[in-house]
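Supplementary notes for students who missed Thursday's class. We covered one full example, reproduced here. Read the sequence, then the structure, then the short commentary at the end.
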Amino acid sequence: MSDKEPRLSAVIVPVTPFEQNCTVLFARETMRGVVIDPGGDVPAILEAIAQVGITVERILLTHGHVDHVAGVADLLDALPVPVEGPHHEDAFMMGELLTQMSRNFGLPPARPVSPDRWLDEGDVVDVGGIPFSVRRVPGHSPGSVAFVSEADRLAIVGDALFAGSIGRTDLPGGDHDLLIASIKEKLLPLGDDVAFVCGHGPMSTMGHERTTNPFLV
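Structure (token representation):
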């Protein structure tokens, strides 16, 4: 591990009754950054942005489930920035189905989301001047992606992997075997020291999950 000061900072804003981790991630040097997975409670997200005093340059989405994308349209009303991600295989859940699902879960009716850029394996997204590579990690949803800065030893993994658990696979498009393969082939090889922010719950490291996660050991 490097003794240098970290280049990135993150503010986690739990949103919706699902306590989804909306992540405001930014580069310390430029004070520019992104909002990842604004699933709802947009006033709380805007307050967090104002408190840290950053310029948001884009919205990134790890996948298309309602608790990760239902606040996108409302956030765009306040911050008209590009939306990038997830992979286009999640498009089916981000249109009219998103509005229906938000009502089904008792959330404010969500407007459909149409990203400016769908993402695929090997693409690069910018976080305040710091590049993050895109890894496809299907299984929790068909279009799930993770954002990885190998230089900063940090990954944003959505609902693919949790501290002590993995994403559920009983929703439309879910596939347990595919999710396990995604984790073992795309995330764990990043290195034991790589920390990750997940869609729900606390952060962890790849090494801790590799040796203790009951779904992986």
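Commentary. The helical segments are 42-52, 66-69, 72-78, 96-104, 176-187, 206-212. The two ends are 25 Å apart (CA to CA). If anything here is unclear, bring it to office hours.
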